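Weekly structure sync, notes
Attendees: PL, DS, HV (note-taker this week)

Item 1: Transposase
DS walked through the input record. Source organism listed as Rhizobium favelukesii. Sequence as pasted into the shared doc:
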Amino acid sequence: MGEDELDDDQLQEPPLSTADHRPCDVAVLPVSLSLRLVEEMLLERGIVVSYETIRRWGRKFGAAYAKQLRRKKPSQKDIWHLDEVVMSIGGRKHWLWHAVDQDGYVLDEIVQARRDTKAAKRSLVRLLKKQGLSPKRIVSDKLRSYGAARRDVMPGVEHRSHKGLNNRAENSHLPLRERERMMQCFRSVGGLQRFISVFSAIRNLFVPSHQKRSALATHIHRIRAIAHWKAVTGATA
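Item 1 (cont.): predicted structure, written out as tokens:
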């Protein structure tokens, strides 16, 4: 190692309080940036910290932030859009089962190894438990497992199965795909499940409803979201 190079121990900053960690956490969690890029951005502002430390902070504080963001009551919307997307974890295929309401609000996500009726049923049971009430309608793609699971879990609920009707759920995967590319895939099922739990809670805060996409409504939504985020994280700037 050259005399101008520093190892990771030398880069470790003095112990900081929870509040002192939060500016870095705020910088990395709500946006699709690589941790190395966040490291460079902080360095430009005179903050010397390794990307591994930023990753540890995100893991340490992210779950607590997400828990506070989810304290508000569940979505009262009555249409659920269901979808599943393939994810590569450690070279093996897994499925992310995903549900959003008609406003694009993420209701639940669960990683499973299979794409069958048993997995669909588990997803619906978990979703129903979280929401506390049944929807008026569920919308899915043409996967038959949804129909079989719906008949067992919520037989009185209308089910529409059509590829074109489910763009809302499919489009909601795009931010996650962007982040997946930044992170160069996920290494474990548990790691992905922890990540989406935090990522979706924060995305729900910052992304406005599909029905409120005017410039003024979006601006007001962002101002309120930032204020809420600062209250949750304790950020002051």
